[in-house]
Write a structure and sequence with these properties.
heterodimer; A: about 230 residues; alpha/beta; six-stranded mixed β-sheet; four-stranded antiparallel β-sheet; 10 strands; B: about 425 residues; alpha+beta; six-stranded mixed β-barrel; two-stranded antiparallel ribbon; 13 helices
Chain lengths: ~230, ~425
């Protein structure tokens, strides 16, 4: 069964008297364990599509199924619960909580969203810290670590809840080449280890080169391209 | 909840200066209110105590119409034998009544054989009077205090003693007109000088009730008023109602009520001052509420604005809106708790210091009244509850806004 399935998915925004068609009736399917990249120039609709898959933004038209659940008409409370249960997020600016330590940042979704018991929580966080190669950095605060390390922590936080799907919006945009490659390798390794599906939005060729499935977006429409390895186009 | 509190606490520490300033403002407000309540409360209870315990008693019973013409000290409106017996029986039966004193109030001419002046007098049974107004002896600033006074003796009010140059053991003459118009005079030995206090009867002299009867040629049992002392001031309203209900139905031949009962509040103008103090306390509390409301709301609005991106992150991760709301409400709550806690400690220290340094003040002609501020646990609790409740209330709007924030918009915020 597909992890993400979109049919005739559209998203319109109203800006004053103008309706902006950000996504124009796209169809695609993403299988579990895939390493997918949505590629396209700025304004092509990558982030909008990711936001819809991440249940942050409801579609205007069409249907969208994530992890077997129709997420088209979820209330904000249901969306929050669904995200907490199934989806992990990695942000361009890392978005770690500055008042929490590295350990606590990873622990946050388990503690505040999924209410895991403390002992189980601590074991899982330590596991993830080790997995991202920061087992001895747990007590540091985000301000005390580098950008690459912050993004590793963000990866660990996205994976800590055993999310089926991780969405990463421009995850390497604020990293140097070497660090970006490390992060991509880390995410791939995590995919291999945990079987998590990774979906990126990017125009960074380093990420695109590493993607196994590429969806090219232009003006809200999916375009066929070389190296495209699956999914349906509108 | 502990996790939310921990996160809220760390967020408060994140902006140390702002947290410190807001807490200091709340502390200042709490200190101002608690000190005002303790000082004004102490002043109020001291004055009420002085008025009731050295002069009026807690309640008074008169013959109907006496109070309206009290200024002229009418002798034809005195309570008579059977009426007095009724009152006596009623008061002796009432368990809330500790003591009562029968008084004759009269006006007379006071002469030191050189000069003459007017004097208002309370004629009392010394034993009854001491039991009913136990602080009366404290007002004797010169002369013997024990036993108050004997027959043939007079306690002269301070101002008259000074004006007429009267000293202890001097002989003076009182001349009074009785209700039939006949004039009589009688010599008295000055037993003591009585300090004047504010309020009705505060500058009256004192003689023995038997002397008043002789002077006024009253042969029957007759009194102008009955002053009553209660075991507990808190039962004032209850006893007042009881007495009113018991005495009210007693009518004269013309079917008019015979008695009137009054609490000290009706008899003393200080009651209005006490009410004004209560009103001022209320306004001070309202000011405190405004301080807490404005300062916390301001801080929490800023906190939400500065952390929009963070709110977007935790919301995207799946934090339920209720937890985001709680996070900001707990921040406001903690600000209120910290400010209140420090405020209460500082206030208690302030009250202790005021008692330690024995601050005195003057009120009217009364000099060197010692201020002994105290604060009740209920007052402290009330302020603590008010401040914390307002802190939570003030955080609600910004917290609600944070919890309802669209995660995409919040994540885009720079």
């Amino acid at each position: 069964m597909a992890l993400v399935e979109a049919r005739n998915l559209s998203k319109n925004y109203i800006a004053g008297e103008i309706t902006v068609k950000a996504i124009r009736g796209v169809d695609f399917t993403i299988e579990p364990g895939a390493f997918v990249s949505f590629v396209g120039p700025s304004g092509s609709g990558k982030s909008t599509l990711l936001n819809m898959i991440g249940c942050l933004d409801p579609p205007t038209e069409g249907s969208l199924t994530v992890a077997g659940q129709d997420v088209t008409r979820l209330s904000s409370k249901q969306s929050a619960k669904f995200r907490g249960d199934h989806i992990g997020f990695i942000f361009q600016d890392f978005n770690l909580i500055p008042v929490l330590t590295v350990f606590e940042n990873i622990e946050y979704p388990l503690q505040m969203v999924q209410n895991w018991p403390p002992a189980k929580r601590k074991k899982r966080v330590q596991e993830l810290l080790e997995a991202v190669g920061m087992g001895d950095q747990g007590n540091k605060f985000p301000s005390q670590i580098s950008g690459g390390q912050k993004q590793r922590i963000a990866v660990a936080r996205a994976l800590v809840t055993n999310a089926k799907l991780v969405l990463a919006d421009e995850p390497t945009a604020n990293l140097d080449r070497k660090t970006a490659n490390r992060i991509i390798s880390l995410m791939k390794a995590m995919r291999d280890e945990f079987g998590t599906t990774f979906i990126f939005s990017t125009h960074d060729p380093r990420v695109v080169d590493n993607a196994e499935i590429i969806f090219n977006l232009e003006d809200g429409l999916l375009q066929p391209q070389d190296g495209y390895k699956g999914g349906n186009h509108a | 909840m502990l996790n939310i509190s921990k996160l809220a606490f760390r967020n408060l520490l994140r902006y140390k200066r702002r947290t410190l300033l807001t807490s200091a403002l709340i502390t200042l407000g709490v200190v101002a209110v608690l000190l005002f309540i303790s000082v004004s409360g102490s002043f109020k209870s001291m004055m009420i105590g002085q008025i009731t315990d050295s002069m009026l008693g807690h309640l008074q019973i008169h013959r109907k119409g006496y109070l309206a013409s009290m200024d002229s000290l009418p002798l034809d409106r005195n309570l008579k034998g059977k009426q007095i017996a009724n009152i006596k029986e009623m008061l002796e039966k009432n368990g809330a009544v500790e003591a009562f004193s029968m008084r004759i109030k009269l006006g007379a001419m006071f002469s030191n054989f050189k000069e003459t002046t007017n004097i208002r007098l309370n004629a009392v049974n010394p034993e009854q009077e001491i039991q009913t107004v136990p602080m009366l002896t404290d007002r004797i600033i010169k002369g013997k205090k024990e036993g108050l006074l004997n027959k043939g003796e007079i306690l002269v009010p301070e101002l008259i003693a000074k004006g007429m140059k009267v000293k202890i053991n001097d002989t003076v003459v009182l001349v009074a007109t009785n209700k039939d118009g006949s004039v009589n005079g009688q010599p008295f030995v000055v037993r003591g000088i009585l300090e004047g206090i504010s309020g009705p009867g505060g500058r009256d002299g004192l003689i023995h009730i038997q002397d008043a009867k002789t002077l006024l040629r009253i042969s029957d049992n007759e009194v102008s008023e009955v002053a009553i002392r209660l075991r507990d001031m808190k039962s004032l309203d209850l006893v007042f109602t009881q007495l009113k209900n018991e005495l009210g139905p007693i009518k004269n031949k013309m079917d008019k009520p015979v008695f009137e009962v009054h609490t000290w509040q009706k008899l003393s103008p200080f009651f209005n001052i006490a009410r004004m103090i209560d009103l001022m306390t209320l306004f001070i509390k309202i000011m405190l509420v405004a301080i807490v409301l404005v300062s916390i709301m301001n801080v929490m609005i800023m906190a939400v604005y500065e952390r929009i991106n963070e709110i977007g992150t935790i919301s995207a991760i799946g934090t339920p809106p209720g937890k985001i709301l709680s996070l900001f409400v707990v921040e406001g709550f903690l600000l209120g708790v910290v400010g209140t806690f420090i405020g209460v400690i500082v206030s208690l220290a302030g009250i202790f210091a005021m008692n330690f340094f024995k601050i005195s003040f003057d009120f009217g002609r009364q000099k060197g009244l010692l201020l002994s501020p105290t604060i009740g646990t209920s007052d402290i609790l009330a302020i603590v509850v008010i401040v914390i409740a307002i802190a939570v209330l003030a955080s609600l709007q910004p917290a609600w806004k944070a919890s309802k924030m669209d995660p995409i918009t919040a994540l885009r915020h720079v």
